[in-house]
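Q: What would this chain look like folded?
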Amino acid sequence: MAIPTPNAAPPARPGPHGRAAVWHRATVAAIAVLALAVFTLGVLYHSRLTRSGEYDDYVGIAEALRAGHVRADHFHPLLYPLVVAAVSWLTPTVFCAGKLVSAAAFAALLLGVHRLLRRYADPAVAGAGVVAVALGPGVWLEGMRVATDMFGAALVLWAYVLAIESHGSAARARWRAALVGLLAGAAVTTRYNLGLHLPVLVVALGIRQRGLIAPLVAVGSAAVAMLPHALVRYTAHGAVFANDNWQNIVLRHAFGRDMERMRQLSEAELAALLAEHWPAWLWRGLGDFLRWLVDGLPRLQLDRAAMAWPPLVWVVLAFIASGVVAVVIRYRRDGVGWLLLGAMAQALVVTVTFDDEPRILLFSTVAFAGLALAGLARGSATGVAWPALFAAAVIALQHANAIPGSWRAFLAAHADAEVAAARALVAEHGPLIQVAGTYPFLERELECAGTAKLLTLVPNGGGPAAEAVFWDGLERIRARRPVSWFVLGRQTAPGMYGFARTATLRPGWTRVRSDDDVVVLHRAGDIELLLTAEPREWRAGTLRLGLEPRGGEAASLVWIGVELRGPAGAVRRLELPPRAGGFELALPYGELTLGDWLAVPTTLDRAGRITQGQAVPIRVRR
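A: My prediction, written as structure tokens:
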């Protein structure tokens, strides 16, 4: 491999041939196999949406678009769900279509990494680098999820790759500029925060081409790429890019990411907080960005394996820093520095205003890895770039070491126990039941009239004050929606789950279930239920159950009866017909098996509230 002189762009590659062609075909085949494996794993094991980028419910948005409706939601861009909705005509479900789109974006991202590395590195290094990046759990897991992170990262990476390659004849340069603009515009309407890459790319094209034609072409094609989103959004809501992303910095610094507390303030009050505190928040965010560069970025390259030997973080940081500096200095006339600038800019904006979530920083993480490998890929006398090959091998091994733990965490994130508990409640008490849960997609998973997700966050520590915040949060949810059952999971909300297991119950609350995975709390309604049972010890004749509701309108109740809980877990539910101002039921002896029973008065109203009163013991004897 020829060693380029400093400040010189690498020679144009006429196309792979010989040994390079073998490596090129092998790498493309490996990418295809990896993408197929990611899609297959997603179909087999990704059974429901998880608490991740899928929290934004792009499946629901795509389902609405396919049905011809646009949700009244200005927060989420529409290009990704539009693509998913279109692909869904070829797949059994919209969820499956989202997996297919994400797997295709995963392949596109890896092809972009390969294209970048092939420009600066030996073919063997390019192939090894692609595999090293692909094995990162932060990459292949996002390839399975139905969210915008992988899709947006692939669009942006290819925009930079084509911008770097925008040389040659004027006609070819304009076509490259048009493609760059299309990809950048599509990225804007995939994730709004990716819009910061558009000005970087436009300036890069202007400097690379030394004129205004290429930047103008890019801006025009970007506008064309934004048209689908703009037309759908404007037709439905009269606005194109209205969103509340600016509230992220307020949510993070003023409320500690407690969405429940932030929602108690108006938009004008939140804007006033931002205007007053933004200098301090910006300064604090800059510190977070520097900490991410020094510690967070290398840990993303290493995943959990870095915890086993902390000095390894500094070793990887040194590899990344030396490689990035080398590639920018060596090929600065080639425009590769713009890719570094874009990766740094996105990481800065995300860490200052939001949080250093790996999925949101996916593009920056992959770009840094690619740049580092490219910078270390200076060939030796034998033509092999051993430092880059060694770095790729180390990263690949560390990623492989982290795969089992990441896979177990991914499977656990599907919250099966929480969903099963909520479904059991619905099956026991009827379709009108209102259930709230910490699983974010409860509304999708339960086929019943009313479900809600719990967003209440609990304070650190314990004690009466913390418990009061916990109970007050649940009562606020009940004030907004007629929720009577609360399902809290260890996997989805460990803090709330802990309080639900140990907090002292308030009047009217009962702890229906408490185990290693799920706690179920029930809040009785405002109707008082007085149950009588004669005789209490039943040996012959007739058992009479009488129920008198007080403090509410019986006409608002759709079901009035008793839940009979007997030996060995036996449960019977009997509706009580009206009798002389109350409700009464007569049972002949032999209707219940021998043993001790509890008769629990139970009612269900039209809003889905279930009220249960004081249980009455009954003994069935010979």
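The two ends are 96 Å apart (CA to CA).
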